[in-house]
Specification:
It is built from four helices and six strands; from the N terminus they run βαββαβαββα. By secondary structure, it is α+β, with helices and mostly antiparallel strands. The longest helix has 15 residues. Bound molecules: tetrahydrodeoxyuridine.
């Protein structure tokens, strides 16, 4: 499903942000990107996470001279929200500087997102603000989550 940020095409599913709320979420992801600490990759990413209660937590990628310690924007946003007591999420928007491609979360981030449910939305944007929206289930099909630990 695609939208241009002005006239979103995706259907209005329950819980899906719309209109000005969606624009704010998209804007907060772009603003977070401006704070990215990425001197090694020079690939800034921003994320904005909408909680069930309507709050937005944003995050950027934070790299390290010990490369493997770098953290993605999506996980920064999730860790900020969780550490402030929020565990129920409606949507996340992700922004990068890529003009011709929608930014897509890495596999590790998809698994961390999935920890908090499979039925929420991720807005993948291009630098011009156009986006596609995917359910978590689409981004990580046949996933393993907390419920599965009870099945053995
Ligand atoms: N990165 C993110 O923060 N999110 C993504 O969705 C893709 C990649 C970061 C990790 C690293 O700091 C840089 O982008 C290059 O991989």
């Amino acid at each position: 499903m695609e939208g241009d940020g002005q006239h979103p095409v995706p259907p209005a599913l329950p819980g899906r942000p719309q209109g000005q709320h969606l624009q704010l979420l998209l804007r907060r992801s772009r603003e977070a990107k401006n704070c990215a600490y990425c001197p090694y990759s020079r690939f800034p990413v921003g994320a904005a996470l909408l909680t069930a209660g309507g709050e937005i937590f944003s995050g950027c990628n934070v790299e390290n001279a010990c490369y493997s310690l770098g953290v993605c924007a999506e996980r920064t946003a999730i860790q900020k929200a969780i550490s402030e007591g929020h565990t129920s999420f409606r949507a996340m928007a992700i922004a990068s500087d890529m003009g011709d491609h929608f930014i897509t979360p890495c596999g590790a981030c998809r698994q961390v997102m999935r920890e908090f449910g499979t039925d929420w939305d991720v807005y993948l944007t291009k630098a011009d603000g156009t986006y596609i929206v995917k359910r978590l289930e689409e981004l990580l099909p046949l996933s393993f989550g907390p419920e599965d630990l009870k099945k053995a």
